[in-house]
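Lecture 7 notes: from sequence to structure.
We start with the chain below.
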Amino acid sequence: MKTKTNLFKKMSLAAAVITIIAIGSGCSKKSDTPTPKANYTVSGNASGAQEVPPVSNTATGSIAGTFNPNNNQFIFTTTWVGLSGAPVSGGFYNGATGTNGTLSGDLWVFPAGVTGSGSLTDTLTLTSDQATQLTSGSLYYSYGTTLNPTGEIRGQITATR
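Predicted structure tokens for the same chain:
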């Protein structure tokens, strides 16, 4: 009887040691921690020729920024030069080059006193749909003015790692 009890104790001890080793090795796996994704560099130039239909003017614009896919934070600065007047609207739209798209998010709010040339810096947290639009190249930005309320200049956005 003593032999069976000792054998049972030894087997129980061996099982406990194996369990502890298995649990301990599972906690140290590097694959449990996700690898951060690299940021995107965002850019795009705007002109009247990119509007649909095209607007004949010499106004230009640009956007530059970064997109962090780990937290969906989009930090950007957009500039405009030579608009027919102060921008009365501006924002991001989902649409391919050469097509009119739909507003993606809210229109931008311009500070008092803006003119036909200026800049706007903002930080947005994108939805998953907006992040996909940005990284797939289907997002563009546009400025409207009193003379061209549906858009005076437009720029397709490129996001590269």
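Points to note: The chain has a mean pLDDT of 88. The radius of gyration is 28 Å.
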